[in-house]
Fold this protein.
Amino acid sequence: MPPSEQVEPAGTTEPAETTAPAEKAPATVPAILPPAQIHLRILNAGSRTGYAKEVAADLKRRGYQVDEVGNSNSRYGESVILYPTKLQREGRRLARQTSITTTDVMPDNGGPATITLVVV
């Protein structure tokens, strides 16, 4: 037989090299920031004088960084937590800790990431 027609005996051929499909590395989710790395702005939108200051004192005791305490220029019917998209998990954790049930995402403004609590 010409060399091109020779047949290898059964079981003597080398197995084809196979490569497993590349496994994708699991997406890493950044850890939720601790309270010490969360900056808060607390605004009083209700009629109770000093309420924002009381809330601020409580959150400072919990380790949060309170950057501003004051009065809101707008009126709200209930307390609300406003957080930038990048602090969504932290905003929701804060909502659970404060029992504030209304939350909303605000656009990231490119500045320091701050969560705003409007209390009534």
